[in-house]
Design brief:
Strand order of the largest sheet of chain B: 2-1-3-4
Mean pLDDT of chain A: 88
Distance between the termini of chain A: 32 Å
Number of helices of chain A: 16
Radius of gyration of chain A: 21 Å
Distance between the termini of chain B: 10 Å
Shape of chain B: globular
Helix content of chain A: over 70%
Radius of gyration of chain B: 11 Å
Largest sheet of chain A: none
CATH architecture of chain B: 3-Layer(aba) Sandwich
Largest sheet of chain B: 4 strands, mixed
CATH superfamily of chain B: Glutaredoxin
Largest interface: A-B, 30 and 26 residues
Number of strands of chain B: 4
Number of strands of chain A: 0
Strand content of chain A: under 5%
Low-confidence stretches of chain A: none
Structural class of chain A: mainly alpha
Order of helices and strands of chain A: HHHHHHHHHHHHHHHH
Number of helices of chain B: 3
Low-confidence stretches of chain B: none
Helix content of chain B: 25-40%
Structural class of chain B: alpha+beta
Oligomer: heterodimer
């Protein structure tokens, strides 16, 4: 139905030819934009409601004194449903560590929470289909568990800033929300988020549409194809400064995949965009000494590169 | 009555502070709104996400920015 609508606008109303580059690009742009915005509105709203049942205080209770492996896996899963914003990373980190959540388990949470987020999932689902979306969730969980387990094994507790273990965490009751308040909050949240990301989504889909229509189809195979061993690490390095802009980058990456970028490189790039960011590093510096901060980013980056190579070699 | 806004100075924390001040102004009451930016003090309230709004020692909201009308309702 959406396809018919896009066809009608581009080929009948505007009168472009379906064979023409411009017609193809414009059709793609209209179709994808409408589809993505419908999906974004519905899924962000649902996710906001689900998340209201998993406040970080509850997640902390579940993870407290859990053993490694099981704890890391749980932390990765809870990272998906617990709302997280890098501006609360400091109180969250202190609260977790103080109440007996092991350091490695805390890191598993800190990896999966920003990486597996609703905006990235919607774009993956809408543009790549459910298989790639599931692959992203699955490999994201693996990266978060592996990174957390490795850091846990390294016994890095002394590289946490000293004051963290001396901070007393209170146990104030947080006022409960009624279901009506939750719905209302979810609606406001969806509106705010859409207001913030819509220009990036449109620009991303626009650039993606341009690539679809104009760039020759095996253009990237030469440079970023499976034959180039540096493609994955380079993709990760490019992804870091694009931090948290999944909305704008995923449509472009989708178009690049159509031009020969292999799936492993695609996954690694998107994970670098969502999980590794400079602003988050600056915030985490408040609770981590430099050494642990570097180790944390190094391990996550290495795990992401590993995922990239793995999927490039098996798919 | 006392209102405290917990947060280490992020954009959302400032927005919440402004909303609280605005709500107090609209309510016509004499209520002091203070910012709590010290992380140790923030933690003593037991919140894990900021910004948070504390009214008379009770954490009303954590991790989101309530609207002016909501805050006005709470301080009535």
């Amino acid at each position: 139905m959406l396809k018919d609508f896009a066809d009608y606008i581009v080929y009948n109303l505007i009168g472009l030819k379906p064979e023409a580059h411009l017609g193809k690009a414009l059709n793609f742009f209209i179709y994808d934009s409408i589809k993505i915005f419908i999906l974004l509105s519905v899924i962000i709203f649902l996710v906001a409601i689900i998340r209201s049942f998993f406040p970080p205080e509850r997640t902390r209770r579940i993870l407290s004194h859990k053993r490694e492996y099981i704890g890391n896996g749980l932390a990765g899963l809870l990272g998906i449903v617990t709302p997280f914003c890098s501006c609360s990373a400091v109180p969250l980190f202190i609260g977790f560590v103080e109440s007996g959540v092991p350091l490695g388990v805390t890191f598993s949470f800190l990896v999966s929470s920003p990486m597996i987020n609703e905006v990235a999932l919607v774009l993956l689902l809408g543009l790549f289909g459910w298989k790639v979306a599931l692959l992203y969730i699955g490999t994201g969980l693996v990266v978060s568990v592996v990174s957390g387990v490795v850091i846990g094994k390294m016994r890095m507790e002394r590289y946490v800033q000293d004051y963290v273990y001396q901070t007393k965490v209170g146990s104030a009751e947080i006022a409960r929300q009624s279901f009506r308040e939750k719905i209302q909050y979810a609606r406001d949240y969806t509106k705010d988020l859409l207001k913030r990301i819509w220009p990036y989504v449109l620009i991303g889909i626009g650039v993606g549409g341009f690539i679809h229509g104009y760039v020759p189809s095996d253009f990237l195979l030469k440079y970023a194809g499976p034959g180039n061993p540096f493609a994955v690490p380079v993709a990760v390095l490019i992804g870091v400064p694009l931090y948290s802009n999944a909305a704008g980058t995923i449509p472009i990456v989708q178009a690049l995949m159509g031009k020969g970028m292999p799936i492993g490189t695609v996954l690694a790039f998107m994970m670098a965009v969502t999980a590794l960011s400079f602003p988050e590093a600056v915030i985490l510096k408040n609770v981590l000494k430099m050494r642990l901060l570097l180790i944390f980013f190094g391990i996550v980056a290495a795990a992401i590169v590993g995922v990239g190579y793995l999927f490039n070699s098996i798919l | 009555m006392k209102i405290e806004v917990l947060g280490m100075g992020c954009t959302n924390c400032n927005k919440l502070y402004q909303n609280a001040v605005e709500a107090v102004k609209l309510s016509g009451k004499e209520i002091e709104v203070t910012k709590v930016e010290d992380i140790k003090k923030i933690m003593s309230y037991g919140v894990l996400s900021t910004p948070a709004l504390v009214i008379d020692g009770l954490v009303k909201v954590a991790g989101k920015v309530p609207k002016v009308e909501d805050i006005k309702e709470w301080i009535k």
